[in-house]
């Protein structure tokens, strides 16, 4: 059955109960989000803004959009894109597109105008709903997206080239449109991170979405009493698929706009949050703020917080050990997935396996995994190979890209591009991205291993190890290091610290710079390779 039926069930059973709360802590952002019609919390000296939505209103808003799209000629299988910042309207719009039988196409809010145009044209999108933050980008391209026949603007001060989403949906029926949807129908197109060029369009069916619901709820046991704090962008599979646990259990969730440690802790405290999904940088920032004395945990009521889980990138074991020192009563889980596997859950650690911190875990609920060599054959336990996954959440294809599809889908198995190994107990450890492996003088260097080691240095906030060209060795390992605030590090400090590593693994070049990450927390290594690669051929190398 489609996930829209869960929404309709919740509206029937819990219609007057709050399901979503949006909170914006930063008054400085008001000028950018006036269209959201925030209500000021009375008697709140911090002056934060919040809005609430019930399950009934959620379902009615989705129905109104679905009926509008159908009235405007949107047919089953047509593509409708979403270009919004996280907000209370985001999920009702997503579900409204699905209820119309259309295919939802969420877009990264960091895309440039050219990337937006590329993605709209690639996906054959016929309608787009966008917010005020994107007026300038849309104004630059709306003449160059011939397939997009309808532009709906969600906000005040509507640009002349778009129609008002709010006015049009307000005049549409709030009853379900009655479009028949099956598990095999196409549902969504998500875009890959695009770290190697323009992103690929990843097509999923309704069966994929349902599998994400069941997997998430099975792994984290959401009940009606839970309240999930959602911070990452909703256009990405990670945030939304974790929220699917709230959908299936009929429980509450909070959308927080902002990632400052004190905002996260304050929201957990005041909203009685029970589950938080963090990206590595945010968890790191919380720990640093605690250890610097910028926040005092005694100022917050965190007694409801039962689970912290992390995904979207390799998690340094040292980070979790630090976390457990400050939050000893938290359950902890690591989730692994990719957009091609409908987000997190195809591999997960499990809260009962904290003793295996460092592993991404075992096959997730309804998933199979194997680690294979270049010939596609399973490798023995302990040896490194490519991780492959199989399950109901594997994508249907890369839309309009048969060659790329055939390169990663083999007899129902999805080749992830991640190098991994399995220990004797069946737990899987990520070694690195296949494309990020550094081959230096014939030796394979896996950057994640070196990064984990460097992150144990008390003065390092973040680090990225990349391969840079070298005339003699082919490639060398370079460490891009971001020091903690107020900490001064030198090249000599890092060289000394790395002497415990095998010689071939030691970075031969040390660079002090900010480590760029995309909205899902992944290090943008192609940007670093582009920035430093050409200069490396002529620069003096640091020898260890």
In the CATH scheme, the class of the largest domain would be Alpha Beta
CATH level-two architecture of the largest domain:
3-Layer(aba) Sandwich
Let me know the largest β-sheet: 10 strands, mixed
Report Rg: 24 Å
Shape: globular
In total, the number of strands is: 28
Unreliable segments of 5+ consecutive residues: 27-48, 537-544
Question: Could you say which structural class the secondary elements and strand pairing correspond to?
Answer: alpha/beta
Mean pLDDT: 88
CATH topology descriptor of the largest domain: Rossmann fold
CATH homolog superfamily of the largest domain: ANL, N-terminal domain
Description:
- The protein is globular and about 70 Å long.
- It has three domains: 4-258, Rossmann fold, CATH 3.40.50.12780; 306-433, Roll (Luciferase, domain 3), CATH 2.30.38; 437-536, ANL, C-terminal domain (GMP Synthetase, Chain A, domain 3), CATH 3.30.300.30.
- The strands form six sheets. The chain has a ten-stranded mixed β-sheet, with helices on both faces.
- The chain contains 15 helices and 28 strands.
- The relative contact order is 0.09.
- The model is unreliable at 27-48 and 537-544 (pLDDT under 50).
- Helix 8 (237-249) links the parallel strand 11 (227-230) and strand 12 (252-257).
- It is 29% helix and 26% strand.
- The longest helix is centred in the first third of the chain and has 17 residues, at 55-71.
- The chain is of the alpha/beta class.
């Amino acid at each position: 059955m489609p996930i829209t039926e869960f929404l309709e069930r919740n509206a029937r059973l819990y219609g007057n109960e709050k399901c979503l709360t949006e909170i914006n802590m930063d008054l400085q952002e008001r000028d950018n989000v006036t269209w959201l019609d925030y209500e000021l919390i009375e008697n709140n000296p911090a002056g934060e803004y919040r809005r609430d939505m019930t399950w009934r209103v959620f379902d009615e808003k989705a129905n109104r959009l679905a009926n509008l799209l159908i009235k405007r000629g949107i047919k089953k299988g047509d593509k409708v894109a979403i270009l919004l910042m996280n907000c209370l309207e985001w999920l009702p719009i997503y579900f409204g597109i699905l209820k119309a039988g259309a295919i939802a196409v969420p877009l990264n809010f960091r895309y440039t105008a050219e990337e937006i145009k590329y993605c709209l044209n690639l996906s054959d999108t016929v309608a787009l709903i966008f917010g005020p933050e994107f007026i300038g980008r849309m104004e630059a391209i709306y003449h160059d997206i011939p397939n997009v026949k309808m532009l709906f603007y969600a906000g005040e001060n509507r640009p002349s080239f778009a129609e008002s989403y709010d006015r049009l949906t307000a005049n549409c029926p709030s009853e379900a449109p009655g479009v028949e949807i099956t598990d095999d129908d196409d549902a969504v197109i998500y875009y890959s991170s695009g770290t190697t060029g323009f992103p690929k369009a990843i097509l999923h069916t309704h069966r994929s979405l349902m599998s994400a619901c069941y997997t998430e709820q099975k792994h984290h046991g959401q009940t009606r009493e839970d309240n999930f704090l959602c911070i990452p962008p909703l256009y990405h599979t990670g945030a939304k698929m974790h929220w699917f646990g709230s959908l299936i259990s009929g429980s509450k969730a909070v959308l927080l706009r902002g990632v400052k440690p004190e905002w996260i802790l304050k929201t957990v405290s005041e909203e009685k949050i029970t589950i938080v999904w963090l990206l590595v940088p945010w968890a790191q920032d919380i720990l640093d703020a605690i250890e610097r004395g910028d926040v005092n945990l005694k100022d917050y009521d965190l007694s409801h917080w039962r689970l912290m889980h992390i995904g979207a990138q390799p998690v340094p074991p040292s980070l979790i050990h630090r976390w457990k020192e400050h939050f000893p009563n938290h359950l902890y889980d690591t989730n692994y997935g990719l957009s091609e596997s409908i987000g997190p859950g195809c591999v997960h650690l499990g809260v009962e396996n904290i003793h295996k911190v460092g592993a991404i875990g075992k096959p997730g609920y309804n998933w199979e995994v194997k680690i294979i060599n270049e010939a596609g054959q399973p490798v023995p336990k302990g040896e490194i190979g490519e991780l492959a996954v199989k399950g109901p959440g594997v994508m249907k294809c890369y839309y309009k890209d048969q060659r790329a599809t055939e390169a990663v889908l083999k007899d129902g198995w999805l080749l992830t591009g991640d190098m991994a190994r399995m220990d004797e107990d069946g737990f899987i450890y990520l070694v690195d991205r296949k494309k990020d492996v550094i081959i230096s003088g014939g030796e394979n260097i896996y950057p994640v291993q070196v990064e984990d080691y460097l992150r144990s240095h008390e003065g390092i906030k973040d680090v990225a190890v990349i391969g840079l060209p070298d005339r003699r060795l082919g490639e060398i390992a370079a460490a891009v290091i971001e020091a903690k605030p107020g900490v001064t590090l030198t090249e000599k400090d890092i060289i000394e610290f790395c002497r415990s590593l095998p010689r071939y693994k030691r970075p031969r070049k040390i660079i002090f710079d900010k480590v760029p990450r995309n909205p899902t927390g992944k290090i943008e290594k192609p940007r670093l390779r582009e920035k430093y690669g050409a200069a490396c051929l002529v620069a003096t190398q640091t020898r260890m």
